[in-house]
């Protein structure tokens, strides 16, 4: 297949591009490199030394003989350029990773909120709009988030996208219907993914676009089979307070002797998936497209759930790291349970990599190799969820949220 990978220079997009190229697909990475600019804005860098995208694809060609094409396009801003590219290339499938994906970054200021909403909603809408305009019957696979559901605590498993509900009709009878699971975002970033869901629902219904939405949990790990083939193919690995995600942050913190930064009591339960499984899931989704006219196909792309404090304790046991319980900069439930259905990928043959598979130590080893690149002052998460929390921080410059724990 000819596959466009929107956001193919990112943490999940790059290993997905390599994985699909390895399987013989013709891969076109489209990326505006905004993530690299955000590194510059924040004064941080990936823990792993990343080469330019041009150099990365050159090394891939050298190692495998396969060409990955790169196109520098901002899909949120350059609608006409993007549409012209789609018209000229007419891909069979499009994998859409190209959004601002960090919840803390999306909550930093009013400018960051605007940027995240404008970028993410326009990116998705421009894509859908252009597909209809060009009569492009490509299968669109979008990377969504488990966070659209809001980590429900109702005691029932979260279904894959749709909820069966009974409504009482005017004549007093029961009518059953399936609705999109009620959206309950916990950040501006997660909210944009809820808006994406509605865009997809409309375009599948109105224009018969074939869309799969992958509601993914937190991705951990860094290597995949293909990124290991050459040191210059290495994946990016974020550790800073905005882009680093919890499990990868804990593993890096353990490697550099920094106390594990648990927010609040650490009673938050979240869904996780290893990066190798994430790329495999995209492959499985591409092999199983919905038919034209079908509703949006939703998968829960996660393999296990864990409570944040249990993760910290597990890593502490493995590495001897200390655990620091910090005031939470986010507005979120301090404790929640989370049960998630993920039958569809298992039935399609996904064989999940779990935390017990020894990969935790592998990640700590990667982090130890590159520990010299870590700026410890960028480790604390300081982005506040509300004005009240921000004001508290401002009033008290000694507040532990602002101080590096050491
Ligand atoms: P990332 O920030 O590393 O990659 C996103 C890529 O998209 C970057 O290379 C960026 O430059 C590009 N991009 C952003 N806006 C663009 C635009 N307007 N035009 C062109 N390119 C643009 O993020 P990631 O961790 O690889 O996540 C990829 C997708 O998966 C995101 O949509 C995210 O919401 C979703 N996701 C990620 C995780 C995770 O734990 N990393 C978990 C669940 C879902
Ligand atoms: N947390 C800590 N300590 C830290 C960092 C985070 O306790 O040092 C806590 C947070 O408060 C939160 C939980 O860990 O309760 C998860 O935070 P996270 O930053 O790992 O994940 P999140 O903000 O939800 O976002 C990440 C990705 C996002 C993706 C989402 C999937 O950045 O793109 O959509 O995971 S999910 O969480 O399932 O919604």
From TrEMBL:
<feature type="domain" description="NAD-dependent epimerase/dehydratase">
    <location>
        <begin position="3"/>
        <end position="292"/>
    </location>
</feature>
<dbReference type="Pfam" id="PF01370">
    <property type="entry name" value="Epimerase"/>
</dbReference>
<dbReference type="InterPro" id="IPR036291">
    <property type="entry name" value="NAD(P)-bd_dom_sf"/>
</dbReference>
<comment type="similarity">
    <text>Belongs to the NAD(P)-dependent epimerase/dehydratase family.</text>
</comment>
<dbReference type="InterPro" id="IPR001509">
    <property type="entry name" value="Epimerase_deHydtase"/>
</dbReference>
<comment type="pathway">
    <text>Bacterial outer membrane biogenesis; LPS O-antigen biosynthesis.</text>
</comment>
<protein>
    <submittedName>
        <fullName>NAD-dependent epimerase/dehydratase family protein</fullName>
    </submittedName>
</protein>
């Amino acid at each position: 297949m000819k596959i466009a990978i929107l956001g193919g220079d990112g943490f999940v997009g790059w290993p997905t591009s390599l994985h699909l190229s390895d399987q013989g697909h013709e891969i076109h990475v489209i990326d505006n490199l905004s993530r690299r600019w955000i590194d510059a804005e924040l004064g941080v860098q990936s823990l792993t030394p990343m080469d330019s995208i041009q150099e990365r694809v050159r090394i891939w060609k050298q190692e495998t003989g396969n060409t990955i094409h790169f196109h520098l396009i901002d899909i949120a801003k350059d609608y006409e350029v993007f549409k012209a590219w789609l018209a000229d290339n007419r891909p069979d499938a499009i994998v859409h990773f190209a959004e601002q994906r960090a919840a803390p970054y999306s909550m930093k200021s009013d400018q960051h909120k605007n940027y995240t909403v404008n970028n993410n909603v326009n990116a998705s809408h421009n894509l859908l709009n252009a597909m209809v305009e060009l009569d492009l019957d490509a299968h669109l696979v979008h990377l969504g988030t488990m966070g659209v559901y809001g980590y429900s605590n109702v005691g029932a498993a979260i279904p894959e996208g749709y909820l069966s509900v009974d409504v009482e009709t005017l004549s007093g009878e029961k009518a059953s219907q399936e609705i999109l699971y009620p959206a309950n975002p916990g950040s501006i970033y997660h909210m944009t993914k809820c808006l994406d869901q509605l865009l997809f629902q409309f375009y599948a219904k109105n224009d018969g676009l074939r869309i799969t939405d992958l509601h993914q949990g937190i991705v951990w790990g860094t290597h995949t089979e293909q990124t290991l083939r050459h040191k210059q193919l290495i994946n990016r690995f974020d550790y800073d307070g905005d882009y680093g995600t919890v499990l990868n942050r804990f593993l890096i913190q353990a490697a550099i002797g920094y106390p594990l930064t648990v927010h609040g009591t650490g009673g938050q339960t979240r869904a996780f998936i290893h990066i190798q499984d994430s790329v495999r899931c995209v492959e499985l989704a591409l092999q199983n497209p919905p038919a034209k006219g079908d509703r949006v196909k939703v998968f829960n792309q996660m393999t296990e759930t864990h409570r944040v404090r249990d993760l910290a304790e597990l890593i502490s046991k493995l590495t001897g790291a200390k655990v620091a319980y910090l005031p939470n900069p986010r507005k979120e439930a301090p404790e929640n349970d989370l049960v998630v259905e993920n039958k569809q990928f298992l039935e399609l043959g996904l064989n999940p990599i779990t935390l017990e598979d020894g990969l935790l130590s592998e990640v700590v080893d990667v982090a130890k190799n590159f520990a010299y690149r870590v700026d410890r002052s960028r480790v604390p998460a300081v982005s506040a969820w509300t004005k009240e929390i921000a004001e508290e921080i401002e009033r008290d410059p000694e507040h532990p949220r602002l101080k590096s724990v050491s």
